[in-house]
Write a structure and sequence with these properties.
Blueprint: E1 2-8, E2 16-20, H1 22-25, E3 29-33, E4 39-43, E5 55-58, E6 63-68, E7 70-77, H2 81-92, E8 99-101, E9 104-108, H3 111-119, E10 124-130
């Protein structure tokens, strides 16, 4: 079984890819299944969150790219920046991870948080989408992700 144990910046060729949920990308040690179906082990330093597009390597030189899996999320679309800020404040006050984009905020689906948002007068949409929350203020690994793209108007 391949053992992936370090993040690298660049790779000339990829052995494959792995698609993981946010929770899986947050765990340092686990058994993973590559997108090819092959089983491998992940043994990274604790405290690191893998970001989509990052490359991880095995001692044998095999390199895979990390992809974000679609998962059950709640998304609040709002045009009013003040209302979006209020939603982020109240949700963040619950110490949950939030993906904040222009015009929306997303979190892992939770009916209690959905009720909180509804109490603020916000409409919550349940979706299957990649979840890429903000990195913590003290996260030294940085955070970069694409913008949320929608196939409908809000």
């Amino acid at each position: 079984m391949l053992r992936f144990d370090h993040v690298i910046e660049h790779a000339h060729a990829l052995y494959g890819s792995v698609t993981l949920t946010y929770d899986q990308r947050s765990r340092a040690r686990q058994k993973i299944e590559l997108d090819s179906g092959e089983t491998a082990g992940l043994f990274l330093p604790r405290g690191r969150v893998l970001r989509p597009g990052q490359k991880i390597a095995a001692d044998g030189g095999e390199v895979i790219e990390v992809r974000a899996a679609a998962e059950a999320v709640s998304t609040i679309y709002v045009d009013d920046p003040l209302l979006l800020a209020r939603a982020c404040y109240h949700l963040g006050n619950r110490h949950v991870a939030l993906q904040i984009e222009t015009g929306c905020v997303r979190y892992q689906r939770d009916h209690v948080l959905d009720q909180l948002a509804a109490g603020l007068g916000l409409a919550v949409e349940h979706e299957q989408a990649p979840f890429e929350p903000e990195a913590g203020a003290y996260d030294s690994t940085g955070h970069s992700h694409g913008h949320v793209h929608h196939d409908h108007e809000h």
